[in-house]
Please model this.
Amino acid sequence: MRGGGYCRRGEGLDKSMKLIVSIVHSEDARQLVDALTGAGYRATTISTTGGFLRQGNATVLVGTKDENVPHVLDLIRDNCQTRTQYVNPLPPVMEPGEMYLPTPVDVQVGGATVFVLDVAQFERF
Model:
């Protein structure tokens, strides 16, 4: 097990700490958090909504040492899959008497959007 890579104040805290913010589809969040905690990382999940389809997302926060970032990114990549979803587009503005037959459009959902941020200070109480 690689370990979470966190450190307490006075235990070698340096500028190599990172905060990884990943926005994932809500269907992938539980599997991702299980994989992260299984590998020894601590993760916090915040339920969010947004994006093109206004569907549920989860923002997963992971604090770790700089050298663990590639491993965390691999776990995110392995557990957050892009998939195709079919949606009906909104009907256009039409004149009276016109008829609109919507054709489902396939869009890519899921995957992850990830930000890796430097941590200026870390405290644990």
About this structure: The CA atoms of residues 6 and 64 lie 5 Å apart. The first strand starts at residue 17 and ends at 25.
